[in-house]
What we know:
- The protein is mostly helical.
- The chain has a single domain, classed as Tetracycline Repressor, domain 2.
- Helix content is 72%, strand content 0%.
- The protein has ten helices and no strands.
- The chain has helices spanning 23-46, 53-60, 64-70, 74-98, 102-106, 111-119, 122-133, 138-162, 170-194, 197-216.
Amino acid sequence: xxxxxxxxxxLQSPGTTAVDAGLQQRKSADTRIAILDATVECLxxxxxxxxxxxxxxRIAGLSRGAMLHHYATRQQLIEAVTDHAFYRHMExxxxxxxxxxxEKRTQDNAGIxxxxxxxxxxxxxxxxxxxVAARTDDELREMFVPKARRHDRVWQEQxxxxxxxxxxxxxxxxxSRRLVQAVMSGMVLNRAVWDDPKIERSIxxxxxxxxxxxxxxxxxxxx
Length: 223
């Protein structure tokens, strides 16, 4: 199983990698990551409107001045965290799927449960806050939509690597991924309202079976 993360490194926020760098560069990269992780936590806990530089600095354990040294404006920070949240989400997914046995991956379709757990993560919750806010915030939408489309492209490419059994039919893989996104994002949005773990398990089981049928050709997408 290929767990190579090279293909998604383009999504890492600038200044957060310091391989073979000096001590000061590594400290700066660690601080940036701490700030971005704090921004994820703030978005997930308080929502986009209440994500302020003051609150992010508090969560990160930094002075506001120290934080602004790395990200001078809220807009710069939100732009950086958009890539960071997606990268973290995808990194965890690729590593977890790569650790599955072939039987678990291909026959049990265990990737569905991994995906669902990550849809419940702080990273996806933060990303969802940005998706929703971008509907009515013109400035955010102008930045967010092109990034989200790039994320989608990289995600599709990585899926073909970690699920080689799908790689022969990229169109079918792409449509199937859209189905997973639509179902799981809807489940996340309605989770508190439904408050029904049993129906969650049932939907995930049905989704898993549908994907297996699509992959094996027992079911096809309508023309």
